[in-house]
Design goal:
The chain is mainly alpha-helical. Among the domains are: 29 residues; 98 residues, no CATH class. Helices cover 39% and strands 7% of the residues. Strands 1-2 form a two-stranded parallel sheet. α2 links the parallel β1 and β2. The longest helix has 24 residues. The radius of gyration is 23 Å and the shape is globular. The N terminus and C terminus are likely disordered.
Length: 328
């Protein structure tokens, strides 16, 4: 169901977007060249929070607002073009924070990518919309002694600011707000199989990462999981295969991966299905777009290009013809 009766064509949307971007560039250049000696409000940091605070303050025409950002402009290809998101990690647009060495991870230190650019983390986070867990918000409320920070209060705010374009959900989602949010419009057909594989080893599954999952102890989600599984089982003709891996609880991670491979094969996808990580996805996307292995090595902070090649999953990709033959 469409929420806007005046739907523009793709060409019109493209023209509108380019026109808006140009007006933003002109306005920012003008404001930067006309800095004042005094401002009513100074906001430090133009990330997701700072930008919103600055915008709300600037709605009052009687006050002046200065927004400070340590990083540079977001008007660069790696931010504007989503397929290049991985190029931001480890670059000058990343604060390059690193976690402490973790003995549970063989002493490894995990990178903590934080945006050092106009837009902050929202400019380098693959456009993921994640609200935060109920326990975290309630902890913030208890620490500050302010109920406005608790989960229910924040959930009301999210409903107000969202313009949700997925399945209606009055309890968790909002429509008509300023922030356009939608499920992944063209998800990898293996995504539901990964979630089902997680379920097979006892991990709870949910229909959204921003609904009941944020009130639970953990889990995995896919917005169209139920429909995808139903379509797959029907098309693959394995409804009565009660002894197959699909319907049996897996005790090992290898069994979960076997479920995914078995389902893909049953649906006619004859290809290698890799266990992609975010880093593998980013490196693959970069190399697919004529990126150089040596540059990918630097971005990933690998000591050897041989390590980077292990994350190159271009050979695992499914062709369009194969995707058309699979119902998930």
């Amino acid at each position: 169901m469409e929420t806007n009766t005046n739907i523009a064509t793709k060409a019109e949307l493209g023209v509108h977007t380019e026109d808006f971007a140009e007006r933003v560039r002109v306005n920012q250049a003008k404001l930067t060249s006309e800095l004042r000696p005094h401002y009513d409000f100074i906001v430090c940091g133009s990330g997701s929070s700072g930008s919103v605070v600055a915008r709300r303050l600037a709605e009052n025409p009687d006050v002046t607002v200065l927004l400070l950002e340590a990083g540079g402009s977001d008007d660069v290809p790696s931010v504007r073009e989503s397929v290049q998101w991985a190029l931001n990690l480890g670059s000058e647009r990343d604060w390059n924070f690193v976690g402490q060495s973790n003995p549970n991870l063989n002493g490894r230190s995990i990178p903590l990518n934080m945006g050092k650019v106009l837009g902050g983390g929202s400019s380098i986070n693959v456009m993921a919309w994640a609200r935060g867990h109920k326990n975290d918000w309630n902890f913030f409320a208890s620490e500050t002694g302010d109920t406005a920070w608790n989960y229910e209060s924040v959930l009301n705010i999210y409903r107000r600011i969202e313009d949700w374009h997925g399945a209606p959900d009055q309890k968790y989602r909002g429509t008509g707000g300023l922030v356009f949010v939608q499920p992944a419009p063209d998800p990898n057909p293996i995504a539901p199989a990964m979630v089902e594989g997680a379920s097979s080893i006892g991990i709870p599954t949910f229909e959204s990462n921003n609904g009941r999952m944020m009130e639970a102890d953990g889990g995995a989600c896919h917005h169209r999981l139920d429909q995808c599984l139903h379509d797959y089982i029907e098309a693959a003709g394995i409804t009565d295969d009660v002894d197959g891996y699909l319907f049996r609880t897996a005790r090992r991670k290898q069994d979960a991966h076997r479920i995914i491979r078995r389902r893909a094969k049953a649906a006619g996808v004859e290809t290698r299905i890799g266990n992609h990580t975010f880093r593998a996805t980013g490196i693959t996307a970069y190399l697919k777009n004529s990126g150089k292995l040596e540059v990918a090595q630097q971005i990933a902070n690998h000591e050897s290009p041989r390590t980077t090649k292990l994350y190159d999953r271009r050979q695992d990709e499914i062709s369009l013809d194969e995707i058309e033959r699979i119902t998930i």
